[in-house]
Write a structure and sequence with these properties.
- With 143 residues, the chain is an all-alpha fold.
- The chain contains 3 helices and no strands.
- The chain has helices spanning 2-86, 92-120, 126-139.
């Protein structure tokens, strides 16, 4: 019976010795997953922060652009009417053509400026994309 007890005592010790590397491996995998989840959470937080910032900036820009466009439209319309009324008796057709040409010229200039600004505007979520690219590069094996 004493022999059997020794075998029973040695079996757990033997299994415990075998469990050490397995538990260590499981612990390492668990830490790796925790690190990956932490990285994913950080990237998602960056993504939401960038989205909020871009949406707020776009909303404010759009609101002020509409206000400026409205005020400019009313001012240009009244200026055009004033010029036409001033030259009503002498050159109303010529002034009307000049005012119309000026509006079209301004429209063309505005379109060119907007197109340039859209080309120069940074890519949406550029910070998040840059961080993800850094993550990929750091995970690639070095040769």
């Amino acid at each position: 019976m004493a022999t059997r007890k020794m075998n029973d005592d040695s079996a757990p010790t033997s299994n415990h010795h075998m469990d050490g590397p397995v538990i260590g491996l499981l612990h390492s995998i668990k830490q790796l997953l925790a690190t990956l989840l932490s990285m994913a959470q950080t990237r998602l937080e960056l993504l939401t922060t960038e989205l909020q910032t871009d949406i707020q900036r776009l909303g404010a820009t759009l609101l002020w652009s509409l206000a400026a466009l409205f005020a400019l439209s009313i001012g240009c319309f009244l200026a055009a009417l004033s010029l036409i009324f001033i030259f009503w008796d002498t050159h109303r057709v010529l002034v009307s053509i000049c005012v119309t040409a000026a509006f079209f010229g301004f429209t063309l200039l505005a379109i060119l400026i907007v197109a340039k600004r859209l080309r120069d505007y940074p890519r949406l979520l550029q910070g998040t994309l840059t961080e993800l690219q850094r993550d990929q590069e750091s995970l690639r094996p070095r040769s």
